[in-house]
Every structure is written in structure tokens, then in C-alpha cells.
Amino acid sequence: MTILDKITTDKIKEVALRKSLIPVSQLEQSVLFERATVSLAKAVREGSGIIAEHKRRSPSKSVINNSLSVQDVASGYEQAGASGMSVLTDGKYFGGSLDDLLLARAAAQFPLLRKEFIVDEYQILEAKAYGADAILLIAATLSRKQIEQFSTFAKGLGLDVLCESHNEEELQKSIMPSVDMLGINNRNLKTFEVSLETSKELIKQIPDEFVKVSESGISSVEAIKELKPHGFQGFLIGENFMKTDNPGESAATFIKQLR
Ligand SMILES: O=P(O)(O)OC[C@@H](O)[C@@H](O)c1c[nH]c2ccccc12
């Protein structure tokens, strides 16, 4: 059993419990449910392209940073000129929560991505109710039919969809009009190996109309300069910022060097 299988198995149980505690009707009553979303895909296309992540810990790195306020990180990233922010909401493996999303929303106006292992439409309703503008779908854990169902459902709520893959088969099943952004994860979620070559290879199969995002293991401005000519517009960066005392400032320094 890979770590991704374990996370998914736990997630299915967690979502069943959540559903029994908070009914859909209650999520739909959230004031944020009425909020007009901001397109992450558009922000990435038109801005720095940096999607900066809030990540306290991960199965591959254990603790990254446990002492920051998510509001400070959100406003720091926004002021730094990031196109958007990815907020990890998984608790068990990443130390995040839906409250992190809510707090980020309270502190910033730029687009927020709910970074979660989505296995059920219910989590997409949660994303909307807690202030997200976009969701992540992980092709490794979903069938083409599920990607279609979840992405269509998200679009109906005004949320953008980033669908991530790590190999050709995953990418091929993610290519559909209800997906806005195709992400290539440089980290293999099954083995944790990281290589930017994954991005450079797989992007060749992405049709023009999709926003193309390279994810994980990006730790230098040079890496961005290397990836851009291959056609990437978006860059998802977590640890490189989060491991510092001031992620917002680190992001600002980084983004300035891109200009
Ligand atoms: O911290 P990094 O190496 O910059 O990676 C960020 C992001 O890409 C990574 O956290 C991520 C990409 N896809 C995911 C899916 C689930 C959890 C986490 C992720």
C-alpha cells in the first residue's frame, strides 16, 4: 500500500464522518457560499504565475514550519505578488484544516486553492463554503469519470479546477474541457522522488488551451527560468517558502527576481 492509498482510504472515512456531522444544507448557508469567486487560472495566466503554498508538514518532510500564522502567510504571499495561494486542508498528514482556508480568506483577496485529497463532491461544497476559489483533483486517485464529475460540479459552483498528474496515463485521463489547469507534479506521491524532468517531458502532451502548472520541488528562480520556455505558466511552490521564518518575504524576494 502506497502512502497515497493510505491517505485516500483515511480520507473516505473522514468524509463520511464529516458528512454525518455537517449536512450539505448547512454548508450552503455559509456566507462565503454566496461570494463571487476569483479565477485562479486567469490570475496565473496574467500574473507572476507563482501559486504559493501553506504547508506545515508533509509525509515526505515531516515538520516544515509549525510556528506561523496562516493569516500572516496569506497576506505576505498576496503582497509578494503571488498569483494565488494553495492551502493544505488535510489534517492527518499535512497538519492543515478547513479553518486554515477560512483564515487565509479573511486575510487576503487573491485566489485560494483548496489543497485536498478530493474523493467526494461534499469536499467541493466545503471548499466553496470556506472561501476557496479553486480545487485540486489528483488523477492518481480518481477515474476519468470521477474527474469529469468533480470538475463539472466545481465549475457549477464557480470554482476553477487544477488537475494534477505524474505520468502519461494520469495526464491523458485529465484532459477535458471542465478542467482549467493541468498540473504536473514533479514529486511522485507514491515514492516521494522529485524530478523537474517529469514536467518537461509531460508538458509536450498538454493541449494549448490549458493553463500549465509545474508543481513541487521548485527551490530556485533558475528552476522557473528552466521551466518557462517549455510552456509552463504556473508554478506551485510550498516548502521553499514555508521552511523560512517569513514565507511572504521569501516569496517577495523570489518573485522580484522573475521580472
Ligand atoms: O513543497 P513543494 O515541494 O514546493 O510542493 C508544493 C506542492 O506542489 C505539493 O505540496 C503538492 C503537490 N500536489 C500535492 C497533492 C497533495 C499534497 C501536496 C501536494
TrEMBL record:
<dbReference type="InterPro" id="IPR011060">
    <property type="entry name" value="RibuloseP-bd_barrel"/>
</dbReference>
<comment type="pathway">
    <text>Amino-acid biosynthesis; L-tryptophan biosynthesis; L-tryptophan from chorismate: step 4/5.</text>
</comment>
<feature type="domain" description="Indole-3-glycerol phosphate synthase">
    <location>
        <begin position="4"/>
        <end position="249"/>
    </location>
</feature>
<keyword id="KW-0028">Amino-acid biosynthesis</keyword>
<keyword id="KW-0057">Aromatic amino acid biosynthesis</keyword>
<dbReference type="InterPro" id="IPR013785">
    <property type="entry name" value="Aldolase_TIM"/>
</dbReference>
<keyword id="KW-0456">Lyase</keyword>
<dbReference type="Pfam" id="PF00218">
    <property type="entry name" value="IGPS"/>
</dbReference>
<protein>
    <recommendedName>
        <fullName>Indole-3-glycerol phosphate synthase</fullName>
        <ecNumber>4.1.1.48</ecNumber>
    </recommendedName>
</protein>
<dbReference type="GO" id="GO:0004425">
    <property type="term" value="F:indole-3-glycerol-phosphate synthase activity"/>
</dbReference>
<dbReference type="InterPro" id="IPR013798">
    <property type="entry name" value="Indole-3-glycerol_P_synth_dom"/>
</dbReference>
<keyword id="KW-0822">Tryptophan biosynthesis</keyword>
<comment type="similarity">
    <text>Belongs to the TrpC family.</text>
</comment>
<dbReference type="InterPro" id="IPR045186">
    <property type="entry name" value="Indole-3-glycerol_P_synth"/>
</dbReference>
<keyword id="KW-0210">Decarboxylase</keyword>
